[in-house]
Amino acid sequence: MAMRLKVREIAQAKGISLTRLSRLADVNYKTVHTIWHDPTHGVNTKTLERIAKALNVTVSELFEEIPD
Hints:
Helix 2 crosses helix 3. The chain has one domain (2-66): lambda repressor-like DNA-binding domains (434 Repressor (Amino-terminal Domain), Orthogonal Bundle), CATH 1.10.260.40. It is globular. A two-stranded antiparallel sheet has the order 1-2. The protein has four helices and two strands. 51% of the residues lie in helices and 12% in strands.
């Protein structure tokens, strides 16, 4: 099984834009943009923790298993 990030879906469901998420999470816009548009892109744990906190979810809620 492969993993993908659900950052875009969670943020949109909460009405949070890419730009706003970048500010709330204190993560570089380019990094959030990459995650937003390429949910299988590798991300470090500190970035995931900041994004999860900004979205008020756990880090594990950011992940989804996808079939290979």
